[in-house]
From TrEMBL:
One of its GO terms (molecular function) is L-serine ammonia-lyase activity. This is L-threonine dehydratase catabolic TdcB. Keywords: Lyase, Pyridoxal phosphate. GO terms for biological process: D-serine biosynthetic process. CDD domains: Thr-dehyd. Belongs to the serine/threonine dehydratase family. It comes from the Bacteria. The keyword Oxidoreductase does not apply. The lineage of its organism: Bacteria, Pseudomonadati, Planctomycetota, Planctomycetia, Planctomycetales. Residues 19-309 form the Tryptophan synthase beta chain-like PALP domain.
Amino acid sequence: MSTFDLYENIQSAAVRIAPWIHRTPVLTSHTLNALCEAELYFKCENLQRTGSFKVRGAHNATFLLEDHLVKKGVVTHSSGNHAAALALAGKNRGIPAFIVMPSNAPKAKIESTKRLGGNVILCEPTASARQMAADQLVQETSGTLIHPFDDLRIVAGQGTCALELLDEIPHLDAIVAPVGGGGLLSGTSIVAHHQSQVTNRPCLTFGAEPAGADDAARSLETGVRQPMNSPQTIADGLRTALGENTFPIIQQHVAAIGTVSDEEILKATRLLWEVMKIVVEPSGAVPFAAVLQNRLPLRGKKVGLILSGGNLDLDRLPWS
């Protein structure tokens, strides 16, 4: 599928999911602009329904399925944000959602998924255990598997975030998105690439990733999709490796990926809380951390940053 086709899919997704999501605000801060020596525009997906951008892709994929395919429900595996998003999408479609979550997922994300009606099954915190449990659920329920990121329907839904951002702030030099499995970064890069072609004004896409889970940075550098080996990072939403579908898109359209340490992620998270008065989870703060630490060539630029989520356990704040 060409980039043009994927962009058309993102436009269609925006119409399809509009009744079920928030158009989240774009905020800026003179204080943070000065600290980063750049003009920053924060797309606040932490204020999205279920607390993250994941609700976009989950609704697009769920509402694209024909009735006969989803009558038995939908199945996925997720560390949290996609889990809650699919639970809500299933609820809005009127079908059950069966969700495998790792036992070390934040308690707040597990409880949120249950509150939204998701049927949660806990498993060992490994990629193989998650996939095995999800495959077993598909067999038991005859439900439809919706992968948390490596699905072009998911990519199209996530791309609507950048579509909204550029509609509101059209002349950005760059957009920075966090990268775990790559669904959000893929969708973002497709939109930014299209914007660049239409306006004849470059709008680059950059990824941001924890140093302790840097498979995307290694993959982009080597040109070969790298495995994720025992990720160690506080950014629990970014511990997954790039997918077969997301990596080629990122390889084609993403300029670079900046990596940051957990200490730098926590500093950025706290700054967002203290200066902008918004609750952002560590995974969502990674793009700001990369810009703050000058890991990407963005000084003096007009930059959009996607704050991907705001779900964390308030009984276990990362700096307490």
